[in-house]
Amino acid sequence: MESLVFLFNTFGLVWALVSMVLLAAAWRAAARKAAPLHASLMKFLTAGAWVFLLLYLASHGAGAGSYDRTRISGPLVPWLALHGTLGLAVVVGAALLLVSRLRGPAGPVSTHLNRFHRVYGRVTAGLWMFTHAGGVANFWLLAP
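User: That's the sequence. What structure does it adopt?
Assistant: Structure tokens below.
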């Protein structure tokens, strides 16, 4: 079990680093008005984030245990709560932005998200980058 935990935690670290690079590339593609590249990167990142989240919940939830729970105390508790909450908000936000782009102006919510895509995208990307950096920090903070 310990080797699987280490393997998943290492996968999480690699995913966070790769995602940070791809997120920066998607930002740059959007700035250069390369919409197809930006869209492809964001589809991949959003799908990958959901896969990672589901794998994370499957491997860390339901008492499976991945870290020494005695080390998770004090200032780590609010940090981990913030990291998890922001991570979930970012994944949901990115999915909403992606779905609104794919559906087009299909209703008031989709129209609003498309009209303000640039604003919401910047906020989501900033929080997403922070969440990935937090994942890298968690790897080092919680590693055995």
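Residues 2 and 66 are 8 Å apart (CA to CA).
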